[in-house]
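Z., the sequence and structure:
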Amino acid sequence: MTSKSREDAQHPPSRCPDNSAFKQQKLSAWQPELTPASVLSGFILIGVFCLTMGVCLILSARSVKEVQINYSDKCLNCSKLRENSSNWNTECLCSADFKLEEKIQGDVFMYYGLQNFYQNHRRYVMSRSNAQLLGRNTDIRNSNCAPFSTYRNGTPMAPCGAIANSMFNDTISLFYYTNLSTAIQVPLLKTGNSWWTDKYVKFHNPTSHNLTSAFAGTARPPYWQKPAYLLDEENERNNGYINDDFIIWMRVSAFHTFRNLHRRLSRTKQFADGLPAGNYTFRIFYNFPVSRFKGKKYLILSTVVWCGGSSLFLGIAYMVSGAVVMLAGFIITAIHLKLKKRKTYFQR
């Protein structure tokens, strides 16, 4: 054994990092010095910011104009008819009249609201086939759609799952009375209401030369009145899995009371500036039953602002956070002054 190998055996290679400024952590660094003045001023500034944001959010939310109508009570006859599942193919029309005292200017959005409808149950949320909704040829018998996957004869449902099967399917039209006897239909937009990522990323129709052949060999869900390829008979591009109403329904809510965007006002002709004041009526083909789970249905006409709709939750959250931070800042300030005074007394 040579002298060099003998030295290597006695002194193995060092694991110490290189003697550089970076690896030895000798680079210039800035470390803040937390003095009482800086900490307390930070508390006060954060509290003032949160309180200011809360006030702005609440004032903006209160500026939203909104009309909400509970039509569950106004359509009791249709509700009783829908309690019997054998009447699923019987049409039932009801109406809900209301009056706008003031004009609603700008963009107007129409929502439907459901109360006491729980979409957050784990089995309900998982009851869907994402592969099927992407337009892929998949065996839904191995998916989470059961028991809404196939019929007894083996015919697969399209779309499958409990979410799709329970889709909101009331047909709603809005009419404006130009005088006591003449009513005109308010133009509403059916498309452009869903999220872009949902419409063009998460949902695709099966590939075929037409939708009818694409859905050949499948059947509609049990509670649907139409197959998927006939959801919108006026617009062929709004059918199948990329139907806006269907896409919006498939985004489930976390709470038992929620609202979903249904239509947008088409600002044309005499509705170019919004909805004029006057008498209106909703004409509803009642299909979605809610009496079994003691639910209620609403129709909402609303505007939006920079922070969203009429919900005060975000503004109140900012106000509460700001108040807590300000209170903590004042308490810490009082403790600091008391301790400082005691320290000065003992130094004397």
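The radius of gyration is 31 Å. The longest strand covers residues 93-100.

Let me know what you think.
H.
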